[in-house]
Amino acid sequence: MNSSLLSLAIWTPIIGAIIVLMTGDDRNARIARPLALISAIAGLLVTIPLYTGFDNAASGMQFVEQYAWIKRFYINYHLGVDGISVLFILLNSFITIFVVIAAWEVVETKVAQYMAAFLMMSGLINGIFSALDGVLFYVFFEASLIPMYIIIGVWGGPNRVYAAIKFFLYTLLGSLLMLIALIYLFLSSGSFSILDWHQLKIGMGPQIYLFLAFLIAFAVKVPMWPVHTWLPDAHVEAPTGGSVVLAAIALKLGAYGFLRFSLPIAPDASVYFAPMMITLSLIAVVYIGFVALVQQDMKKLVAYSSISHMGFVTLGFFMIDSTTRMGSTLGVEGALVQMISHGFVSGAMFLCIGVMYDRMHSRQIADYGGVVNTMPKFAAFFLLFAMANSGLPATSGFVGEFMVILGAVKFNFWVGFLAATTLIVGAAYTLWMYKRVIFGEVANPHVAELTDINCREFLILGVLAIAVLAMGLYPYPFTDVMHVSVDNLLKHVAVSKL
Amino acid sequence: MLNEFVLPNLAPVYPELFLLTMACVILMVDVIMGAAYRGLVAALSLLTLFGCAVLTALTATGETTLTFSNMFVDDAFADLLKMLVYGAVATVLVYSRRYMRDRGLDKAEYYVLMLLATLGMMVMISANHFLTVYLGLELMSLSIYALVAMDRDSARSTEAAMKYFILGALASGLLLYGMSMMYGATGTLEINGVLQALAMGQANGVILVFGLVFLVSGLAFKLGVVPFHMWVPDVYHGATTPMTLFISTAPKIATFAMVMRLLVFGTIPLAEQWQPMLLTMAVLSIIIGNLAAIAQTNIKRMLAYSGISHMGFMLLALTTGVFNGHAALALEAYTSALYYVVAYVLMSLASFGMLLLLSRAGYEVETLEDMKGLNQRSPWYAAVMMFVMFSMAGIPFFVGFFAKLSVLLSTVAAGLVWVAVVAVAFSLVGAFYYLRVVKNMYFDAPSDVAPITASRDMRVLLSLNGIAIAAFGLFPQWLMDLCQEALARSLF
User: Fold this and answer.
1) How far is it, in rounded angstroms, from Cα A142 to Cα A175?
2) How far apart are CA B340 and CA B343, in angstroms?
3) Is there a contact between B8 and B68 (Cβ–Cβ < 8 Å)?
4) Which of A275, A399, B242, B325 is deepest in the core (most CB within 10 A)?
């Protein structure tokens, strides 16, 4: 039976984007903005039944749709979600609304194109999370680069061209190798269905190549150390909305890829490479944490903090016991919670920086100081998000990190120990930045002239604050959705495919 | 004793006869009516192409029919390719009309030569005999040489025509020499006959291989693949933009047909010999075409090098058909090659059409600088050009992606994983220069702010062209089936 909810989730924002584009140039910006908001809200509304109608006890794919697309290669328009992917569709559609509102009066040039690019991005990303056909996944994965390239390049900072091209080529490099892996899987299985590939027996040699091809694609996207260098550039140059989508959603695509492709398709290679993955993740967690400490630019600091947090995610995925081949349920679930929480927190952090940037046109920490004196409401929100970023209990940041650390200590004490240092380093760089920017005497006349957040900004930050707190206090609705799927995945990985 | 003259079956050549007649009529019309009725000439040329399409559709039986003592063949493959050629030439005529008129180049010769070149292509496509191949090729080439030299006061055009002529003549010579060797070895000039002689294994191996090398070199020259590619950037750059548009589209289809006729229909038993040559050329073309394109500041040159790499991709698909003997995979491979050509022609039409759209009297758009800020001047045409660039780079949802995907599928299926990796790696290099065009259009401020003043028919057609690139990317099935069916009916 075909349900059309996922198609709606994908195509509602894209059609909205086309309608917004039709409003033409900036003379019609007053029409473009509300239209974009309506599309974004409609985009979220159509995803709500995905959560309310989701059967938490079922382990298979739900809301499945399947139509033949290209018969010659047995490529299908095949969509479906499980407990792992459904939350990201909701998160993505949710964040899109904030991106649209955040740009309301800030973006003044080519408004329609700006809004349309984000709506398109939103639809394409929903496509990535729901695709169950290899080529369909790839098509959405690649196509989502186009709007982001335009977003960074057109509305970005001074070095935007370099950042945009670097972003595009870096990501393309990874995904092209994945394309060959997909073709190889098609030729060995006669199908492009990801679910068929999960059942496919593959020898150790090919598994290793497949794992590496997927690794390059997803490691760039996550990004993992040492292929992370595009991210700080892209974040710093991107407009606020671009940074938010990049950090909150786009980075999750890579991590999601590990769960959908690497682990279930090449389980033996995953077990084989697990120590390497853990090492790379720990380097990201610890080393990048220290790199974040010395940043002068707030956006760069949050960008590095994102890489460090994503290190936690990959760590959680690959804590696989080498003898029982059983992954850590706590680790994977913690990582998934961390991904969603990071979506809220990093999105909020970038929005906060955007609020300051809109007023001061600077992201340098040194240009600020004593902001609390002129923007008290803003300082309160920023404090909450900074705390969540450093993993304070009762915020969403704590839940995921704690679960992963718990899993890590069970897995190996020293891995857990190293991972736990992030609680110190993370707190250090975030709070030190907070102190320098917000506290102290008013640093200069520009800061003295700052005005506090307006209604629009208050609304965005307020809703995100509620989300961060709610998830921190009561994470059960999130973990409950994913539990069966995660269990299922780990059991699948534990069985050799040789 | 003389044989009684028997009129050959003319039905398969109706389109050719019609085109030839109309070309003569158009020449007469122009002489009688004079320059004031140039519009009529243009309209008649388009009508002629339309008439040819109707005739081809009406005479298409789907069966293979031989006529003129087996020199001429009409099969599903020929019908499809001819239709594509009509479409491409008609599009070129629409795109180029205003450009030529603004520069006083829209003489009747222009239309007539274009139609004669089309006739040459049709003959090439339907050739079942080495001499017919050669006849068609020369008719096409000589018309194009003249067309390139059309702007005779321009030193650059004249130089390009000269280069094209000399190298083209050399290539024709190589081809002819190769054909003579084949004739020496097999005793026949008929493509079917050569196939039979080869299948029987009676031919002299050394002469055959010797001839094959010349044949392949000649074809490579015409396709413009490395190492026979040196003329491509110079001619693309030197010729007036409408001619570049023309050279890079319809003749590619005809040349593809020639390659198929000579290598696949004719000498497939020698595949083991020609396949490594083609593979080497394909890989080198992908590498060198993409690398050299990075250094170009002139869009026409850049697209020339990108065209070289695209032809490399096409050859790659063609090569993979013979790695594993069974018919299904070979058919897949040839379908991929044909689909790639169609995709390339679609993209090429739009890309050079874009340059024509932006050019105006006294102002040639041909450098990357000229694309700056196009998004501010016209968001829709910037989007069309963006479609083309991403399609050429092989990014979904555009037609170029599925073309590349099917080529890569064939390549990996043939066991050439390393070739696929190289092809993919250089696609990444290619993505850089396509992205640079998008960057100029979207990220930079315009250097030229004149409004776009193209005729309505061109605007509509170019928009449709852009939409087609996206639509065939979303729904590639129909076009792929069309290619596959035509090949399946003609080959097996």
Assistant:
1) 7
2) 5
3) yes
4) B242
| Angle between helix A396-411 and A455-473 (nearest 10) | 30
Task: Report the alpha-carbon distance of residue B402 to residue B346 in Å, rounded.
Answer: 13
For residue B328, pLDDT beyond 80: no
Predicted pLDDT of residue B351: 92
In this structure, what token pair is assigned to residue B126? Answer: 């339907």
B442 touches chain A (CB under 8 A): yes
Residues in chain A: 498
pLDDT on residue B492:
67
Q: pLDDT at position B123, please?
A: 93
Look at residue B1 and tell me whether its pLDDT is greater than 60.
Answer: no
Contact assignment for B439 to A165 by CB distance below 8 Å = yes
Mutate to test the interface with B, among A73, A120, A121, A175 (most CBs of B within 10 A): A73
* Both tokens assigned to B442: 């979207």
* Residues B341, B432 contacting (CB under 8 angstroms): no
Radius of gyration of chain A (CA): 22
Question: Would you call B379 an interface residue with chain A, using a CB distance cutoff of 8 Å?
Answer: yes
Pull the structure tokens for residue A103: 């740009």
Q: Does the predicted interface ipTM exceed a cut of 0.90?
A: no
DSSP A116-171: HHHHHHHHHHHHHHHB-BHHHHHHHHHHTHHHHHHHHHHH--TTHHHHHHHHHHHH
Arithmetic mean of pLDDT over chain A: 86
Angle subtended by helix axes B399-413 and A134-143, to nearest 10: 140
Cα radius of gyration (chain B): 22
**Counting one residue from A and one from B, how many pairs have CB atoms under 8 Å apart?**
93
Could you tell me the pLDDT band of residue A203, with boundaries at 50, 70 and 90? Answer: confident
pTM given for the model: 0.90
Question: For residue A39, what are its two tokens?
Answer: 């599309």
What is the β-pairing status of strands B65-67 and A75-81?
unpaired
Structure confidence by residue, pLDDT tens digits, A142-185: 898 889 888 888 887 788 888 888 888 888 888 888 888 898 88
- Contact between B283 and B319 under an 8 Å Cβ cutoff? The reply is no
Q: For residue A25, list chain B residues with Cβ-Cβ distance below 8 A.
A: 379
Q: Is A180 on the interface with B (CB under 8 A)?
A: yes
Q: How many residues does chain B have?
A: 492
Closest CA to B401 of A119, A259, A167, A141: A141
Q: Nearest 5°: phi and psi at B394?
A: 80, 30
pLDDT in tens, A284-337: 888 988 888 888 888 888 889 888 888 888 888 888 877 777 777 788 888 888
- Would you place residue B375 in the very low, low, confident or very high pLDDT band (cuts 50, 70, 90)? confident
Nearest by CB to B395, from A21, A25, A146: name it: A146
Q: Do the Cβ atoms of A172 and B428 come within 8 Å? A: yes
Contacts of A466 by beta carbon, 8 Å cutoff, 6+ apart: none
* Three-state secondary-structure class, residue B447: coil
Domain ranges of chain B: 273-492
Q: What SS3 class is residue B74?
A: strand
- CA-to-CA distance for A181 and A188, rounded, in angstroms? 11
Per residue in B441-471, pLDDT (tens digit) is 888 888 777 777 778 888 899 999 999 999 9
Q: HSE on the CB side for B429, CA within 13 Å?
A: 19
Confidence check: pLDDT of B325 > 60: no
How far apart CA B111 and CA B114 sit, in angstroms, is 5
Amino acid identity of residue B329, one-letter, is L
Residues in A touching B405 (Cβ below 8 Å):
73, 135, 179, 183
Chain-centre distance for alpha carbon B137: 13
Contact B189, B183 (CB under 8 A): yes
Using CA atoms, how far apart are residues A401 and A409, in angstroms rounded to an integer? 12
Q: How far is residue A36's CA from residue A17's CA, in Å, rounded to a whole number?
A: 7
